[in-house]
């Protein structure tokens, strides 16, 4: 029986005074069928930055961030402590609705794309993800930080949390047409995937497609 990875794209343009940029996005495929011979597949995203009469001249180049999230999952992270010659489970935390897959492609280093505050607000970069823990009232509760770090480490080691700061390239001599290759590995879970595309310039967020 084959499984299915489905990519969801919908348009959400930021509106406001002097913000005339818009994003037009397309994918090389909207579905990946996964069977016993599946060894991974690349999905290519193409994008165009459009400008209209509201667009003002900007001194800074465009920067793009592409964020891909797999279906949410709830995971129990356990800590093992050594007692005499044995390793036993001594504590655990339940992470609720974390992305099962998470990839970020950008047109440059995070410091070139935008400010730490904006990257954190939009959860661009795995270290900026906000994790909810069962029985804890706040995201990324410091009391559960070792479990958060363990989860991130395991995901990265499995190739399910990846970041590529050269993963978005502009086509031609302008910074208005771009592409990004998204690698979906063989061990990626099936289900619905969401793609967020962010357009920044001069550290400001100009447009966002989700």
Task: Outline the structure in words.
- With 210 residues, this protein is mainly β.
- It has helices at 110-113, 116-121, 145-157; strands at residues 3-8, 22-27, 31-34, 41-50, 62-69, 72-83, 86-99, 102-106, 132-133, 161-164, 168-170, 177-184, 191-201, 204-209.
- The strands form three sheets. Strands 1, 3, 5, 8, 10, 13 and 14 form a seven-stranded mixed beta sheet that branches.
- The longest helix has 13 residues, at 145-157.
How do the strands and helices of this protein lay out in sequence?
Layout (H helix, E strand, L loop, with lengths): L2 E6 L13 E6 L3 E4 L6 E10 L11 E8 L2 E12 L2 E14 L2 E5 L3 H4 L2 H6 L10 E2 L11 H13 L3 E4 L3 E3 L6 E8 L6 E11 L2 E6 L1
Parallel strand pairs: 1-13, 8-10
Antiparallel strand pairs: 1-3, 2-4, 4-12, 5-8, 5-13, 6-7, 7-9, 11-12, 13-14
């Amino acid at each position: 029986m084959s499984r299915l990875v489905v990519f969801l794209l919908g348009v959400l343009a930021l509106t406001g005074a002097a913000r005339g940029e818009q994003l037009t996005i397309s994918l090389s495929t909207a579905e990946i069928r996964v069977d016993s011979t599946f060894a991974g597949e690349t999905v290519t995203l193409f994008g165009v930055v459009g400008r209209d009469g509201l667009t003002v001249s900007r001194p800074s180049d465009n920067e793009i961030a592409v964020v891909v999230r797999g279906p949410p999952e709830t995971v129990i992270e356990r800590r093992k402590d050594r007692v005499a010659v044995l390793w036993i489970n001594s504590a655990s935390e339940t992470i609720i609705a974390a992305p099962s897959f998470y990839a970020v492609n950008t047109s440059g280093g995070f410091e070139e794309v935008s400010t730490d505050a904006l990257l954190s607000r939009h959860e661009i970069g795995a270290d900026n993800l906000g994790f909810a823990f069962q029985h804890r009232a706040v995201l990324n509760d410091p009391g559960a930080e070792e479990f958060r770090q363990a989860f991130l480490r395991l995901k990265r080691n499995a190739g399910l949390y990846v970041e590529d700061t050269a993963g978005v390239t502009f086509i031609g001599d302008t910074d208005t047409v771009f592409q990004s290759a998204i690698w979906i590995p063989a061990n990626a879970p099936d289900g619905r995937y969401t793609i967020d595309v962010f357009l920044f310039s001069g550290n400001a967020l100009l447009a966002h497609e989700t």
